[in-house]
Amino acid sequence: MSVKRVAGIDRAAALDLIGTACALHTQRLTVANSGNVSLRYENGFLITPSGVLYEQLTPQDIVHVGLKEGDSANVLAGHRAPSSEWRFHRDIYLARPDVSAIVHTHSHFCSALACLRREIPAFHYMVAKAGGDSIRCSDYATFGTQALSDAVVKALQDRRACLMANHGMVALGSSLQSALLMAQEVESLAGQYCEALKLGQPVLLDAEEMVRVARQFEGYGQQASDKPKA
Which range of residues forms the domain containing residue 206? Predict the structure, then answer.
């Protein structure tokens, strides 16, 4: 008989989480064990552990963290410490009932723009995929802190992705697949924006056009649950 649960965690959910984490490498969205991935689960969320290479992860390594607020992670199951960034995962899930999965990466172009503390403006209509007429860059705070969590939650208001100053990016989704696809899209846009800046100042689309684009995207290639909520 196959094992369906590991340390109280559904094995299939743990394997899906590991598969998404490993995809960060194959999609060149991160290196080594930087970044993290989580999935809303039961009365909390599953998250990758701290300091373990993705390709070495097993279902036993995944950590189940509760949504209880506080300065310490409310670990419900798992023998490892959760990612040091568990706070902003928890706080995003608390603030955004529409979000079921979160991907955080230190991807190349997103991190480059984040180190300049530059948002991604409406230089391309696909920016609207992230939920607005820009992909914001959050304020800077030390990794793993409540201050960083607060800054990220603010930058993600009515958005599905943001950059993190001097750090990386965060992408949200209604599933692990949609969160990963959003991370890929934002990294691609960041790369295009960096290339455009080498040639000059890109012509930006106005707010009215971005609203029209957002309406065009409604129901196109995404579920209604992927629509951002304040």
Answer: 5-222
